[in-house]
Write a structure and sequence with these properties.
By secondary structure, the protein is mostly helical. Helices cover 75% and strands 7% of the residues. The protein has 2 domains: 9-104, Orthogonal Bundle (Arc Repressor Mutant, subunit A); 136-200. A hairpin with a 2-residue loop joins strand 2 (60-65) and strand 3 (68-73). The longest helix is centred in the middle third of the chain and has 46 residues, at 85-130.
Length: 201
């Protein structure tokens, strides 16, 4: 993608933002992201060295406000912004063009990705249509898997219901005798044995 700011333009643009109002570093990064429609979000490593250079040149000052460092433009900074108003106007125009170009590139990438996805889906659909019919064994396996899902769902439902009934019974002060639990376990074992015999034919 084309760069948003040409060499040296970011410095002047930062000054113009500070000419609007004092800001801390994060505010400047957010302002740049907002002005570029989110297509350019500078890092702290991009912003703070430039702010330090502007301070060194006497164009901005900084004050510490709690945990934030606020930067403000000086009279010398305002004078530079005023003297370079024509350049700033050109930067703003170039910025709009650059953002527009980036947006076009993004839209082009999205369209290409969508075309590729549609082609992949069409190829997959054709492969499914052209695939030979599955043998009878596959149908039997599919039916067996369906019955397995039914059995597992029934076991889960039974387990949930029995647990809820026993807990409710005990919570209401009911008794759960050892003989009742033994009878329940024996019935479960008998059901398991019956199922095993059925599976073995």
């Amino acid at each position: 993608m084309a760069p948003v700011f040409s060499h040296g333009d970011l410095r002047l643009y930062l000054l113009s933002l500070l000419d609007e109002s004092p800001r801390h570093g994060y505010d400047l990064m957010q302002a740049l992201a907002d002005r570029t429609g989110g297509t350019y979000t500078p890092s702290a490593g991009t912003i703070y060295p430039r702010l330090a250079k502007l301070e060194e040149e006497g164009l901005v000052t900084k004050t510490v406000d709690g945990r934030k460092t606020v930067y403000a433009i000086t009279d010398a900074g305002r004078a530079e912004v005023a003297a370079r108003a024509g350049e700033l106007e050109g930067i703003q125009s170039d910025l709009a063009d650059s953002v527009r170009l980036i947006a076009q590139e993004v839209r082009g990438s999205v369209r290409e990705a969508m075309r590729s996805l549609r082609a992949d889906l069409a190829a997959a659909s054709k492969a499914d249509r052209d695939a030979p019919a599955r043998p009878h064994e596959d149908d039997e396996r599919s039916a067996a898997r369906e019955q397995l899902r039914r059995a597992e769902a029934a076991v889960t439902e039974f387990r949930t219901q029995v647990r809820a009934d026993m807990r409710t019974h005990v919570a209401r002060g009911g008794q759960l005798s050892a003989s009742a639990v033994d009878a329940f376990i024996e019935a479960m074992d008998a059901a398991a044995r019956e199922l095993t015999r059925g599976l073995r034919g």
